Amino acid sequence: MNRASTTGVGSSVHTGGSIPINVHKKKMIDEGETPTVSKLYLRIHQTKGSKWVDDKSKAAYEKYVQKLSETQTTQASIDGFNPSTSSEPSYEEQMKIWIDANGLTKR
């Protein structure tokens, strides 16, 4: 068993290999796509057929989506929901939501 793994399934698996996340982010921008935490995570944790690389990745994403939804619902109730003015959280805000949902990776 890999000592770096706390789940017993070995180290994390990525479809992008050893390419750093900032390179994936730049490629998305070059392709005309706005990189979000969600899009980047899906890009490196799902195969082209939308199959998850492992259950741990799927669970982490589901926790993030739930927390993002809760955050947006709370914000809408505070601000008063207006679909024409509602916007997606900034990348930095999305990262804060990810950390709230999943914590930080220990390295």
How does this structure look, described?
This protein has 107 residues and is mainly α. The chain has one domain. The protein has helices spanning 21-30, 37-45, 55-79, 91-102. It starts with 20 loop residues before the first helix and ends in a 5-residue tail after the last helix. 6% of the residues are buried.
Fold topology:
Layout: H1 21-30, H2 37-45, H3 55-79, H4 91-102
Helix pairs in contact: 2-3, 3-4
Based on CA atoms alone, the radius of gyration comes out at: 16 Å
Number of domains: 1
Mean pLDDT, rounded to whole units? 82
- What is the percent of helical residues? 40-55%
Give the H and E element order. Answer: HHHH
Give the CA-based shape: globular
Task: Please report the number of helical segments.
Answer: 4
- Low-confidence sequence ranges: 1-8
Number of strands: 0
User: For the terminal residues, how far apart are their CA atoms?
Assistant: 17 Å
Structural class: mainly alpha
What percentage of amino acids are in beta strands? under 5%
Q: Report the sheet with the most strands, covering strand number, pairing sense and barrel closure.
A: none
